[in-house]
Amino acid sequence: MRWQIAIGTLFLVAASTKAGLAADPRYPDWPCTQAKVPEISLTAVWAGPPLDDVKDKWKDDAKVSAQVARLAARRTSLDDAQKLITEFLGSPATDKATTGKLLFAGLFDSLNAQRASVMNGLERITRKQREAADKIRSDVSALHALQGASPPDQPKIDELSNQMVWQTRIFEDRQRVVKFVCEVPTAIDQRLFALGRMIQQEIE
């Protein structure tokens, strides 16, 4: 039974680390099947007027900054976002074109930062998984040695086997988390594109 645990664990680690090998050598810690795109391209999500004249100015406008925070939050549905944008840009005292550009500039900065944070987290997990895989391999070798000893030290064998069971569970849990989180950068891209289209429609 203990040999089965060791062999099964080795197969798990080997399969998981092989599956996680980086497809792009420029990003050795990137664990996702989706290609790593470090930053969202402005032209991919915005077809409205140029933002060169607003850039970081959105941070100086408290009302715009508050709207950016609400719209950037994933808990705000796109339906609710549409209502917020229409109401915010529809005020008679609002310069739609300028305010709309400020709003999108803020969303572009905020969601790019949010996306970068997620991607950095994924790469941190990859490094932890690599360390965990090395530890599991080392423990498998140690377990083999203990089992081959004469006489075998059963308490140590049991202790190491139980430790490996927990290590393997943690390893598997992280793999499942990675698979889920790998979808997040694409979801952020899609959200930013959708918000950009809403703002463009309001200011056209």
The radius of gyration over CA amounts to 25 Å
Count of discrete alpha- or pi-helical segments spanning 4 or more residues: 7
Stretches where pLDDT falls below 50 for ≥5 residues? Answer: none
Please summarize the sheet with the most strands.
none
* Helical/strand content category: mainly alpha
Order of helices and strands: HHHHHHH
Share in helix: over 70%
Task: Give the overall pLDDT as a whole number.
Answer: 87
End-to-end separation: 69 Å
User: Which overall shape is indicated by the principal axes computed on the Cα atoms?
Assistant: elongated
Descriptive notes:
With 204 residues, the protein is mainly alpha-helical. It is built from seven helices and no strands. It has helices spanning 2-19, 42-45, 62-72, 78-89, 96-148, 154-181, 184-203. The longest helix is centred in the middle third of the chain and has 53 residues, at 96-148. It is elongated and about 85 Å long. It starts with a helix and ends with a helix.
Could you give a quick summary of the protein structure above?
It contains 7 helices and no strands. It has 204 residues and is mainly α.
How are the secondary structure elements laid out?
Elements: H1 2-19, H2 42-45, H3 62-72, H4 78-89, H5 96-148, H6 154-181, H7 184-203
Helix pairs in contact: 1-5, 1-6, 3-5, 4-7, 5-6, 5-7
Notable traits:
single chain, 204 residues, mainly alpha, 72% helix, 0% strand
